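Entry:
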Amino acid sequence: MNKPWLKQYPAGVPAEIDMQRFASLVDMLSDSCKRFADLPAYRSMGVAMSFRELDEASHAFAAWLQGSAGLQRGDRVALMMPNLLQYPVALFGILRAGMVVVNVNPLYTPRELKHQLRDADVRAIVVLENFAHTLEQVIAETAVRKVVTTEVGDLLPTLKRLLTNAVVKHVKKMVPAWRLPGSVRWRDALAAGRALPLAALPLGHDDLAFLQYTGGTTGVAKGAQLSHGNMVANVLQVGAWMSPNLREGQETLILPLPMYHVFALTGALSFFSQGAQAVLIANPRDMPDFLKVLGSAPFTAIIGVNTLFRAMLDAPGFAAIDLKPLKLAVAGGMAVQQVVAQRWKQRAGVPLVEGYGLTETSPVAIANPVTIQEWSGQIGVPVPSTEVAILDDDGGPIALGEVGEICLRGPQVMKGYWNQPQESAKVFTPNGWLRTGDMGLMDEHGSIRITDRKKDMIVVSGFKVFPNEIEDVLTLHPDVLEAAAIGVKDERSGEAVKVVIVPTSPALTEAEVLAHCKRHLTAYKIPRVVEFRSEPLPKSNIGKILRRELRDDKVASPAAPAVTA
């Protein structure tokens, strides 16, 4: 296959990764723990955990899972917590025990939680007590027989632990552990595990490491089967991609995205493999507290999504944060808007490096080189050992510069969906390309521009309209905070564009919005319906605006068109 994108690789970035360096993700993580033993691996609430301490604690938890918990190789163990020190310990422990991690959004409703636990046939779960009331409502309808409950401060020094846990219990609705069948406290499990042997299980690339559920934005959530080989590949790919900017054992990463999301998960593991310290942010929505963390110590890298970067830029205290040490700001999970990219470069001095991937690709498949000086508006080029093709609906190739479906092949691509062979068959072409469901184009240099989700495309009188373009134009207006574009039925054109806007000023009018659009868009792209909202638009757990919910929302259904385009 012709790979024109290789000419854009910075010096030192290989065309292919060496998958044989590590037999499993456990081997890779163990290697980092040995090489960087005395360096800090994670920091939370001002407390650091070294690579050595993580190694010892995860060893104890793995031994407890194999011994006291009575679980078997391949059993699924769920994690239901935000970014706390307990998360990497539990994750590494589950993998070391030869079991499979099932990440769960702690903000799930009982219905969502029950579906995931039952679909994955989860046998054990580690849950932060703050969210145990949700588990309590559904556990009897699942196969879960072992529950480990943890409190926010469980891995903090004694005095800070007691004070933190007391404060949380005072302000949060907590479910006593005894109300959860098979419940064991986190600290008790670790203590018991330290006295138990750990059976070293041989793991290979084909062994399952994660059942990583999609966000459910396209229907019922499906479990992407990510093997140890998939994860080893993507950590190596991302590590190689970052190598021009970062140095082993010398970096500090700010991690405000939840590690239960695959973007933050692989990002954190990639930095971990390089000996970096990751500062865990449990609640980035608490912007004053988040800014205190940013101001407490120099940091060299940050991972985020467009909405988070915009929230930071809008926060009054962000102007005082010292960003001079910052080397790398990575944006993914959703499209970066031009106005955010421009403001970030002006404030931070480094561009937003945009990447692209899916849960099904572990997730990184395409990225801009970290050496870029300006945000490009493109998602970049394929990372090492990755192939990209732009295909038509029949799986045939499309000419350079033409829009088609972005399709991927590489060692990071999932094995398939858990217990859903028909869905797995739908997402792969006969010759092994993963259909992403995203529309885009590739230029002669191999650079790829995403236009939109295939399902979100709006067809106006036969003309294709991509919501990202409309939203990007709208957010250039100084009085628009958030915007989403969706398609609504129209008697004349089949579909018309509707926009839902959260303004920064109550003075913003429909006429001003339409005039702004007319300055930037051709006639068939101009919205026919404009709706203003005072509340934030619905978002996924990483901040991506959920257009599906706006389409399904009766409030969002069109009234009479305000203005004819």
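The radius of gyration is 24 Å.
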